[in-house]
Amino acid sequence: MSLLSIRKTHVLLEEIYQEMGQNVDSPPRKVTVAAVIHNPCAGEYQEDLKPLYGLGEEIGGYLAEKGDRPWASSRIRWKAMVKAP
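The structure corresponding to this sequence follows.
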C-alpha cells in the first residue's frame, strides 16, 4: 500500500531567448517540478524512517515523469531538491 498522497504539484519551465542582449540560437530549457505531499509521520516521533524510503522513490519517479513532457528536451538540466519542514 502506497503512503503517497499528493495535495498539489507545480511545474515551471524556463526558456532563455536572450543573454546579455544577444539572441540565443538554441534556447536552453530548465524545468522545476515540486509537490506538496502528506507526511504520514507528521505530529509524532518516529524512531525508524525506513518505511518512508519507498515514499521518496515513489515521489521522485512521479516528479521526474511530470517534468518529462513532450515539450521537454534533452537540453533540460535535471536537479533534484528535497526540502523538509
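Residues 53-67 form the longest helix (15 residues).
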